[in-house]
Structure of ST8 alpha-N-acetyl-neuraminide alpha-2,8-sialyltransferase 3:
Amino acid sequence: MLRGCSCPHRGRMVRIASALGLIIFSVALLILSLISYVSIKKDFVLGAPRYGPNGGPRMYMFHTGFRERPPRKPDLSSQLALKYLDPDFTPLANSLSEDLQNSSKWKYNSSAFRQLRTEISQHIDIPNNFTLTRNSVKVGQLMHFDYSSHKYVYSIGENFRSLLPNVSPILNKHYNVCAVVGNSGILTGSRCGTQIEKYDFVFRCNFAPTEIFKKDVGRRTNMTTFNPSILEKYYNNLLTVQDRNNFFLSLKKLDGAVLWIPAFFFHTSATVTRTLVDFFVEHRGQLKVQLAWPGNIMQYINNYWKTKQLSPKRLSTGILMYTLASSMCDQIHLYGFWPFGWDPNTGKELPYHYYDRKGTKFTTKWQESHQLPAEFKLLYKMHTDGVLKLSLSHCA
Ligand SMILES: *[C@@H]1O[C@H](CO)[C@@H](O)[C@H](O)[C@H]1NC(C)=O
Ligand SMILES: *[C@@H]1O[C@H](CO)[C@@H](O)[C@H](O)[C@H]1NC(C)=O
Ligand SMILES: *[C@@H]1O[C@H](CO)[C@@H](O)[C@H](O)[C@H]1NC(C)=O
Ligand SMILES: *[C@@H]1O[C@H](CO)[C@@H](O)[C@H](O)[C@H]1NC(C)=O
C-alpha cells in the first residue's frame, strides 16, 4: 500500500537523482581525464618525460607564461639533468658539461667535414636545388607541396615566375666560416652578438628579429628563411597600410641578403604566398633583398639525414639551414640550437624562442612532427667529431 502511493514516486525521484549524479560524475571524470591527458601530453612533448633543472618533473609554461625564478647557481646537476631527457644522451652529457666549462677545447676536423659535404652532395645538388629559376618552371605549371596531400596544387603565374632568379644566388659562392643562428631561448643573455657579427656569412631562421636583441644575436644577416605564414602571424596578411609599411621596413633591413621562401612545403601557405607575390611585384625595384624559392626538395634532404638515422616527420628549419650551408661554407658554427626548456649554463628556465619571452610557441602539431632532441643529439655528436661547432655557452 505504502508502496502504491509514495514509493513509485520516490523511486522515480531516487532514480532521477542517481542518474543526475551519474551524469555529473561522468562529466567530472571526463573533465579530469581531459586535464590529465593534456598535462601528460605536455610532459611528453619531447618524446620523454621532461624534468626540471633539479631532476624533478618540470612545470610546463604553456598558460602561465614565462615565470621568473630566482637565479640558481650554475651546477652540474642541472647539466646532467639532460640524461633524464633521453637515456641515449647520457654518454654525451659529461662531454657537454666539459664543453660548457671550456668551449675552447673544441677542434675542427676539416677532413671529416669534407667527407660529410661529399655525402650530402650525393643526395642533393644544393646550389641547383636552392631555388627554382625562371627557366625551370612554366606559367600554368602546377606545383605540389612537400608536406601536404598530392591533391593540393599551386598554379605558377606570370607574376610568380617573374620573381624567380635567373640563376641560383649561391651558385659558385664560397665562404670561409659561417654561422647558422637558430632561434632557441638559449641565446637570451648570451651576449654572443659581437661574435656572430664576425662570421663571413650568417644564416638565420624564420625572419627572426635581430635589432632589439643585437647584444645576444648580432644583426648581420646574409640569408634568412621566410615561411609565407609569417605574413599571417606577424603582418596581419598585409591588410592595412601600416602592415605593409612594417613589412617593407623589415625587408629593407635585409638589403643584399637572401630571403629563402619555402612556399611549396605546406598547402596552407598557398593563399599567403599569393599575397606575398603581389607585394613583391608591387615593390619591384624598391627592395634589394634577393628572393629564392625552393621547389620540392625535402625528399632529397630527408634521404640524407635518414642515412644518419634521423627521420622525423619534419626536419627543423635549423638543420635544413645547416644542410644548405654545408655546400657554401668551409666551416660551420651553430648558435641558438638547444631544444630544452632550461639553460644548461644557469639552470634557469628558458623561453622557447629568444624573441618571445612570454613563453613557448610550441603547438601540439609542431611537437608531434619535429624531433628536436633527436636532432640535437646528432648535431652534438657531430660537434664532438669536430664536424661543426655548437655554441652553447655565453660569449662574454
Ligand atoms: C681551456 O682549454 C684550452 C685548451 O685545452 C686551454 O688552453 C685553456 O687554458 C683552458 N681554459 C680554462 C679556463 O680552463
Ligand atoms: C678526423 O675525422 C676522421 C674521420 O672522418 C678521422 O679518421 C680522424 O681521426 C679525425 N682526426 C682527428 C684529429 O680527430
Ligand atoms: C634539383 O637539382 C637537379 C640537378 O640540377 C635538377 O635536375 C632538379 O630538377 C632539381 N630539383 C629541384 C626540386 O630543385
Ligand atoms: C653579410 O651581411 C653583411 C650585413 O649584414 C654585409 O656587410 C656583408 O657584406 C655580407 N656578406 C656577404 C658575404 O654577403
About this structure: The pocket of 2-acetamido-2-deoxy-beta-D-glucopyranose (ligand 4) is lined by residues 200-201, 220-222 (CB under 6 Å).
